[in-house]
Amino acid sequence: MLRLVYPLLVFFLLLFTWVIFSGKFDAFHLGLGALSSLIVTVISQDLLFADRAKSLKERFSEAGRFFSYSLWLLWQIVLANVHVFKLAMTKAGEEEMSPRLVKVKLKLKSDFARFVFANSITLTPGTITILIKGNECLVHAISEAVEADLLSGEMERRVAEVFEPEVAS
Known about the structure:
The chain is of the alpha+beta class and 169 residues long. It has 8 helices and 3 strands, in the order H-H-H-H-E-H-E-E-H-H-H.
């Protein structure tokens, strides 16, 4: 019975998200949303709830930490946009621009935490995650300043605080 609870929960969360974002309530769109939610649930439900030992309280705590992380990430995206704008629009920025590939050693243990970290990097202007292999991440950085931010480990530490608090401490 418990084996069905998690996939059903994932399905309904995805369907709810579909309905909210689509704003369409006719049979065609609801059916398409249900079909899409079912396919995604079948393919990836283990990714969302890989650790089924966590209690509901722990999950809500994790969701709160993720919300806090999302606000921090949004601010980092704003700062990165300003930096990339400076690189593109000023003579000093043009001289500072020096694209490079950077290897980042990861301390994150779970695949989901690595997934969030890699996507956070890619969402931040001036960086793109190219590859995650084992405990290394290959990232394209647009400048030395971006590389320094990346290697500081701040983003990885914050992701660890959300998903692996025992590792982050």
